[in-house]
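Table S2 (continued). Query chain:
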Amino acid sequence: MIAATQSVPHASATQAQQLLGRAVAALAQDPDGTIKAINNLSADFREDDLYVFVVDSRTGRYAAHGYNVRLVGVDFASIHDPAGKPVGEPIMALMRKSDAAKYDYRWEHPVTGRVEDKYALIQKVRDYVAVVGYYRGSTGDEQ
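Corresponding output:
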């Protein structure tokens, strides 16, 4: 009997930071086009298990989501992790004090469906908050 295993993609912290940098640069240059591209699930804003989401800081609602477009328009402050820990409100509170931040929470992995530790890299750009999260403990180059 031969057993085959399929490797589940787990992007690194470095890859997450690079994706966030690309998203921030795109949002600074063309916010409307970037939001449209993210919501169209463009490969420019997705990599392995990474994706970008954007919150409009004026409304507090998702403007774009690179994995689950059903969240567009949802109040980000209402988002909690599967254990009930607030995710949206603490991130927005961090962004009221800083232009960049990080936040730990647990989230369902888009490939495996398992709830795993996730680390969000967050940056303010124009009237938006851009976020890319990576799953911790999977790559060895955590930040």
